[in-house]
Amino acid sequence: MQEPRLPPGQYVPRGRPVIHYGRVPQFRPDSWDFRVFGATASGEEHRFAWDDFERLPRADVVADFHCVTKFSLMGVEWRGVSPATILDLAPPDPGVRHVMIWAEYGYSANLRMSDFTAPGTLFAMEVDDKPISLDRGFPLRIVVPHLYAWKSVKWVRGIEYLLEDRRGFWEERGYHNVADPWREQRYSYQEEPGEGPP
Ligand SMILES: Nc1nc2c(c(=O)[nH]1)N[C@H]1C(S)=C(S)[C@@H](COP(=O)(O)O)O[C@H]1N2
Ligand SMILES: [Mo]
Fold first, then answer.
1. Is the CB of 12 under 6 A from ligand 1?
2. Which of 118, 132, 184, 196 is deepest in the core (most CB within 10 A)?
3. Is 103 in the pocket of ligand 1 (CB under 6 A)?
4. 146 in helix, strand or coil?
5. Residues in domain Oxidoreductase molybdopterin-binding (predicted)?
């Protein structure tokens, strides 16, 4: 039997819906930066200006994308910077097990380090060979295709290395801390011991 591609409860819509909370931010290349802070190995914050970030080597990922509101987009082609590149240039303290992804306007999502370094996770700048559109996260979004899409933070401005797990924007508002669509981890009341911060 073939592996199913659609996680339980999901459907493929017409078109590609755009969803976010709040307004679409403006991109100002001169003041844009990507900050790596929290428990860095050096104890110092790292900062990338747009010109530096844009020159980092790019990788390709083709992946399906699953929103907790039940639509799934199949075979999306992303290009961008691998989390491994950021971990090399701005290494975490060895005790770091979780990462908070931070966006414009304070939107955030937490990831386990294992999800951050998973092969499909990417800081995407392009989709379908074009720069990502403003409403899909231009100039930079993370895609974490193996988790529900609220973890795929648009308009990313930095990451925070965490020694202890902490909930992000939707995880604080009743959504599952881990968010594996194959296990239908939609809501926080489904969390098993060890899946969320104490
Ligand atoms: N900064 C930010 N990123 C975000 C959101 C948001 O509200 N703000 N919404 C998330 C949710 S719930 C989904 S389903 C996806 C939608 O991505 P899309 O608009 O490219 O379909 O973005 C995610 N990333
Ligand atoms: Mo979503």
1. no
2. 132
3. yes
4. coil
5. 22-170
